[in-house]
């Protein structure tokens, strides 16, 4: 019978190997079971990765859909407010013109009221000589 060594870790060393008799059907059956278990584990890992990728893709699609709905809702509210304020723009302009005219009239009347006092004060300061 021939003796072969199976590596038990990634390090290469004679102490890391286990001798197995190739003629032993029990050992070969164990190796085959280990290989089959490793393949099955790899299939399970791959399936889990694929499932995770699919879930992430689905979550992204759902998030994009929610964002689009929210954006549409916000845009509709904005357009509604724009329509409300622009519909009254003629009234707003007229109101602002009236307020401006009233303020101008008030300022002119105040200027007329105090203009004589201001002129007298200026003349007093200009003509007074200080030592």
UniProtKB/TrEMBL annotation:
InterPro entries: V-ATPase_G (IPR005124). This is V-type proton ATPase subunit G. Residues 49-80 form a coiled coil. GO terms for cellular component: vacuolar proton-transporting V-type ATPase, V1 domain. One of its GO terms (molecular function) is proton-transporting ATPase activity, rotational mechanism. Subunit of the V1 complex of vacuolar(H+)-ATPase (V-ATPase), a multisubunit enzyme composed of a peripheral complex (V1) that hydrolyzes ATP and a membrane integral complex (V0) that translocates protons. V-ATPase is responsible for acidifying and maintaining the pH of intracellular compartments and in some cell types, is targeted to the plasma membrane, where it is responsible for acidifying the extracellular environment. Catalytic subunit of the peripheral V1 complex of vacuolar ATPase (V-ATPase). V-ATPase is responsible for acidifying a variety of intracellular compartments in eukaryotic cells. Keywords: Coiled coil, Hydrogen ion transport, Ion transport, Transport. It comes from the Eukaryota. Belongs to the V-ATPase G subunit family. V-ATPase is a heteromultimeric enzyme made up of two complexes: the ATP-hydrolytic V1 complex and the proton translocation V0 complex. It holds the Pfam family V-ATPase_G. Signal peptide: none annotated. It comes from Cinnamomum micranthum f. kanehirae.
